[in-house]
């Protein structure tokens, strides 16, 4: 029994003593160097313009309702005034909701379009980390207090993806 305990202890110690290799990666820098990013930015801009055009139509419809109400207010019955006022309020609420949701819609579209790029980076990162024996890779950002650039995989991933970067960057 004592021999079994010693063997178990030896196995535990050797498994804990295995070397870990930690690297870092600057995902945002890699993303900024990808040629596909220009297409994504253009698509987001076009999507935003489409949202703006739709908002413009909503404003035009609202202004038409207000003008029609003001032009015909004298000849309308109380019930007709109430219906048109409710229609104007509904249009105002629709515009307000559309404006509030606009930034959320753009963020969702950006995430949708960037997801394939992040996946591409992830595949390359996994390949590089496995090939170079990294056990952990951290995102390189301001939360790290020390980074040894020898263990930064950013350039290796860019090279793996076939993206050339000027050395001065």
Protein described:
The chain has 169 residues and is mostly helical. It has a single domain, classed as Protein Binding, DinI Protein, Chain A (2-Layer Sandwich). Helices cover 72% and strands 5% of the residues. It has five helices and two strands, in the order αβαααβα. The protein has a two-stranded parallel sheet with strand order 1-2. The model is unreliable at 12-17 (pLDDT under 50).
Write a concise keyword list for the protein shown above:
169 residues, mainly alpha, Protein Binding, DinI Protein, Chain A, rod-shaped
Count of spatially separate domains: 1
Average per-residue pLDDT, rounded, comes to: 84
Helix content: over 70%
CATH topology: Protein Binding, DinI Protein, Chain A
Give me the side-by-side strand order of the main sheet: 1-2
Strand content: under 5%
What's the CATH architecture name? 2-Layer Sandwich
Layout of helices and strands:
Layout lengths: L1 H15 L5 E4 L1 H7 L2 H37 L5 H55 L3 E4 L14 H7 L9
Parallel strand pairs: 1-2
Helix pairs in contact: 2-5, 3-4, 4-5
């Amino acid at each position: 029994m004592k021999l079994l305990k010693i063997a178990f202890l030896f196995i535990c110690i050797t498994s804990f003593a295995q070397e870990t290799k930690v690297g870092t990666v600057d995902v945002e820098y890699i993303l900024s160097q990808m040629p596909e990013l220009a297409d994504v930015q253009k698509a987001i801009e076009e999507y935003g313009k489409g949202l703006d055009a739709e908002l413009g139509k909503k404003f035009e419809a609202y202004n038409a309702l207000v003008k029609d109400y003001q032009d015909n207010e004298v000849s309308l019955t109380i019930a007709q005034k109430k219906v048109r006022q409710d229609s104007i309020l509904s249009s105002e609420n629709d515009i307000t909701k559309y404006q509030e949701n606009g930034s959320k819609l753009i963020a969702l579209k950006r995430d949708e379009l960037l997801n394939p790029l992040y996946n591409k980076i992830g595949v390359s990162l996994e390949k590089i980390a496995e090939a170079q024996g990294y056990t952990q890779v951290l995102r390189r950002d301001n939360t790290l207090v020390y980074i040894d650039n020898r263990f930064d995989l950013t350039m290796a991933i860019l090279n793996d993806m076939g993206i050339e970067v000027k050395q001065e960057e």
